[in-house]
Q: What sequence folds into this?
């Protein structure tokens, strides 16, 4: 303790000179690359009255929005981008700040519980007070926690708050805070992208190759044409078998948009079950193109597509196409990998670049990507590409769809608020898995978790256990059915199933009297003797939980399991599974020694 203080203070001179050193090194980078990054850089109206101060990728969004509002709306707004937080340099900050600035909003991507403000806000506030600029109005807000989207319409809402006679001094943005009411209202989407930019969204299934194909397409277009390209990818936590969303942008001018696509010119749905599970058209532009990979006929679309989707397609005058890419992939020997087939469809319908040129580049990329796997694999992918165009079917969108009535919107989760319960920081629903599944889990599974308000959650994010039983994804293309006449009751299928979607059940005659006819007829006398003589045995598959991995089919020694189309198996077996899970657990009655 006698010398520690002195040792710490001995380093002051090195920190005092760091800003100059960083600036010197920045000039070296500029000489080599042509890129200039000021430690404190300003963008926007040269005589701005309202300025946002921010760090990180959000500075790009703020900069693009401020430039758009200044150029097209005449608003005197700007953004000061902080690239050096420690050591803080007040002189460089004030030099970059327009002399006309009257109000400042400081944004932090963090939360300091119990403090009067977040780190960047406190730094700016103390600096302005110490530098005789205390007349400036300084407010602060939080954004983007947990990688929450930060978009141009959010930036606009911040400027609107800053322009009010009495702006909200501390706020959150990008969420609906209906508990402490700190959140700012966010208006409709604001497009600040350069003219001519094409935006695309691809909804794929984890492991179907969609993401890999889109990455390849972006490289092809960016390196093989004069177009600028950008891509972002969203992954489900389940990865293989989960939802993937690819966000692609192409245009003649540089694209600076570190956020996902929210106004798609081209929408590709690679899994037919998605049209019923998710709101597929919420981010689709008017006059856009929608492509669905499905086995449906044109006539079946009237019943297969939900009312909201049909209404959106009609009101937005969209062009609708269908293709059975799964069947084309099977014929080409590609299994479930439809990536290259749907990629060629994209080049055909999107108009991003000349189709013949795109297909030639696509085939070259196939040879490069799959060359190490042999000529056979390369040929299968090229055959799939060649067959894909013939499989595209254009569908008429009836004008009558514009008047369809929709019972409930997918984004109506704001109406499903959970009320606070009496007691210390706890909701009564937190112990109720069923209630939690309906009010929180279901919207999240429907890709609508962003719309959930603060009141829907327990402080700290605590959730009840046993909620995976409510998630019925229905992602399998083919689902197994059991022939109980062949079944040897070895239970190997249930042991190898990774998702417990294949289970053995024991039932008494009295219980079977209440069972669906198919379940009852498919039950057989349990073998093994002892207590098992009192029960009927059946292997039951959960068609909604099955992922179609085929492990149970392969391990069955008696070939009692065979695959069938998921849609047909669901109709036949859903009621059987729902009854089976109501049967009591009889594990304690079995001698396991």
A:
């Amino acid at each position: 303790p006698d010398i520690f203080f002195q040792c710490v203070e001995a380093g002051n001179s090195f920190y005092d000179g760091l800003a100059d050193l960083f600036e010197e090194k920045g000039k070296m980078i500029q000489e080599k690359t042509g890129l200039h990054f000021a430690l404190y850089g300003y963008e926007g109206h040269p005589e701005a009255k309202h300025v946002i101060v921010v760090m990180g990728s959000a500075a790009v969004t703020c900069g693009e929005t401020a430039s758009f509002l200044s150029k097209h709306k005449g608003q005197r707004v700007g953004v000061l981008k902080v690239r050096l937080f420690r050591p803080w340099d007040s002189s460089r900050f004030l030099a970059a700040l327009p002399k006309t600035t009257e109000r400042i909003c400081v944004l932090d991507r963090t939360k300091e519980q119990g403090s009067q403000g977040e780190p960047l806000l406190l730094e700016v506030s103390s600096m302005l007070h110490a530098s005789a600029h205390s007349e400036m109005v300084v407010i602060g807000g939080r954004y983007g926690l947990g990688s929450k989207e930060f978009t141009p319409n959010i930036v606009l809402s911040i400027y609107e708050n800053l322009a009010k006679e009495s702006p909200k001094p501390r706020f959150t943005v990008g969420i609906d805070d209906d508990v402490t009411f700190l959140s700012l209202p966010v208006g409709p989407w604001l497009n600040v992208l350069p003219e001519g930019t094409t935006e695309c969204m691809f909804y794929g299934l984890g492991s179907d190759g969609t993401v890999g194909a889109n990455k390849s397409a972006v490289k092809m277009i960016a390196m093989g044409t004069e177009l600028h390209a950008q891509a972002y990818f969203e992954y489900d936590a389940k990865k293989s078998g989960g939802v993937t969303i690819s966000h692609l942008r192409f245009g003649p001018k540089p694209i600076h948009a570190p956020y996902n696509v929210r106004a798609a010119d081209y929408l590709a749905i690679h899994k037919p079950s998605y049209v019923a599970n998710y709101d597929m058209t919420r981010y689709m532009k008017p006059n856009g193109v929608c492509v669905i990979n499905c086995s449906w006929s044109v006539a079946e679309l009237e019943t297969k597509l939900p009312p909201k989707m049909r209404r959106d397609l009609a009101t937005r005058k969209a062009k609708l196409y269908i293709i059975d890419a799964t069947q084309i992939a099977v014929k080409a020997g590609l299994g479930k990998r439809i990536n290259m087939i749907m990629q060629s469809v994209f080049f055909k319908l999107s108009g991003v670049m000349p189709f013949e040129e795109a297909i030639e580049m696509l085939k070259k990329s196939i040879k490069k990507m799959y060359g190490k796997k042999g000529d056979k694999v390369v040929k299968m992918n090229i055959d799939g590409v060649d067959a894909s165009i013939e499989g595209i079917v254009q569908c008429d969108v009836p004008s009558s769809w514009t008047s369809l009535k929709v019972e409930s919107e997918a984004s109506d989760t704001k109406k499903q608020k959970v009320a606070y319960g009496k007691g210390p920081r706890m909701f009564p629903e937190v112990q109720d898995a069923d209630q939690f599944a309906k009010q929180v889990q279901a919207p999240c599974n429907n890709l609508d978790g962003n719309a959930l308000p603060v009141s829907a959650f327990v402080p700290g994010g605590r959730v009840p256990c046993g909620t995976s039983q409510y998630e019925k994804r229905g992602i399998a293309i083919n689902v197994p059915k059991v022939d109980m006449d062949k079944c040897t009751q070895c239970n190997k299928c249930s042991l190898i199933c990774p998702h417990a979607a294949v289970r053995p059940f024991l039932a008494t005659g009295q219980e079977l009297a209440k069972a669906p006819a198919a379940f009852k007829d498919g039950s057989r006398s349990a073998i093994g003797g002892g207590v098992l003589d009192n029960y009927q045995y059946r292997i039951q598959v959960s068609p909604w939980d099955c992922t179609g991995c085929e492990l149970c089919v392969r391990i069955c020694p008696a070939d009692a399991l065979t695959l069938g189309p998921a849609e047909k198996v669901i109709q036949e077996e859903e009621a059987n599974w729902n009854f089976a899970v109501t049967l009591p657990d009889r594990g304690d009655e079995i001698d396991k020694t």
